[in-house]
Design a protein that fits this description.
The structure is a single chain. This protein is α+β, with helices and mostly antiparallel strands. Helix content is 24%, strand content 19%. The protein has a two-stranded antiparallel sheet. Strand 2 (24-26) and strand 3 (32-34) form a beta hairpin.
């Protein structure tokens, strides 16, 4: 499974960073960076919760 971001929608609210800091971070300019696009199967439910928590619905799973 892959985590994707629509950067046109993303406001860098960092909800995802707080929930999964090993997968997401903000760079020095406060832009979202996906550190680990490929997510292991055992973290699928966790990533679904992170995606559902995005206030701008910018994240998705593929």
């Amino acid at each position: 499974m892959r985590v994707k971001c629509d950067f046109d929608l993303c406001e860098s609210n960092a909800v995802c960073v707080g929930m999964a800091p090993d997968v997401f971070e903000l760079d020095d300019n406060d832009y979202l960076v996906i550190l680990q696009e490929e997510v292991p199967a055992e973290r699928e439910e966790e990533m679904r919760q992170v995606v559902a928590s995005c206030p701008r619905s910018a994240l998705s799973l593929d």
